[in-house]
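Please, does this match?
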Amino acid sequence: MKTVSTDTQKLLAIKFLKGIGEKTISSLSTMRDFSEMSIQDILKLSLNKKDNYSITDINEALEMAQQQINIAEQNGHVIISFFDDSYSLNLKNAGYSAPILFCNGDVNCLSEDNLTIIGTREPTKHGEVIAEKITSWFVKKGWNVVSGLAFGVDSIAHSACIESNGKTISVLAHGLEKIYPAKNKDLAKRIVDKGGLLISEYPYNSFVGRSNFVQRDTIQAAISTAVILIQTGIPGGSLHASRASLQFGRPLIVAGQSKSDITNKEDKAIGNNALINSSYEEIRKILKINEFNKELILPLINRNHYESIENKLRSISKSNFSPDNTLNGNMDLNF
């Protein structure tokens, strides 16, 4: 596969022009004559920026784009955009601004059935088991697993997917030249080696800010049929992807928790239980969302719900776009 298509190379150069943001770039997705037009014509005719950029500005942007392409080529990566067939249809249908993706691994994963599995960096022991069992079950049903390579539930989901011979996608909040947290470098390598994919909307060597991680969580939701929330506190970072899933009109599957964790009030980890038991108005406040379809919140209380939820997801995927229960100790989980 080519490192980058001609249209994506042109789009990447436009991205490096000062004052051009993601929304502006995304507006070009419906241009029929993009391939035939020069950057100067695109700026003049489509973006109404005729006199904003000199030839020198455009040449500098082209050079910056080529530098990114060179890095990708040196590392065996590819760069895709919404002009490419390999770009995620789910992401395109979400209407979310991530027009260019830097990819390390098998980009075909983006066109397959994907589920995002997320949760706290500090799950309870019961939460770790829940994450493993849910991940393994859905992988054996043919789903790829999407997560964010963070410690805790993300790492468990990626690892359990690989152990179940599935393919997993990690969405990064920074350029592909680094792995954060650094201790997950081996896991990142395993993801790619086992047929999975690392993706980022951020160019190589770009600035990493706190907002990057919120954007990362939103992309996780956008490329998937649904989001499965294993454990999170209230508030918690996992709520970003949870909110995004509902905003995209896609199911948010909320895992039920062990009786022990509920009894012990492990609120830092199992606050997501409130998403199952609360009223519409309370959930709006928890997720900080204006409105949503509450029917999109699907409780996954125990393993008896797996099949019915998977059937719903299959119907959505088509129209749109069990392990041993014996556990060590007193883990009273029905997963």
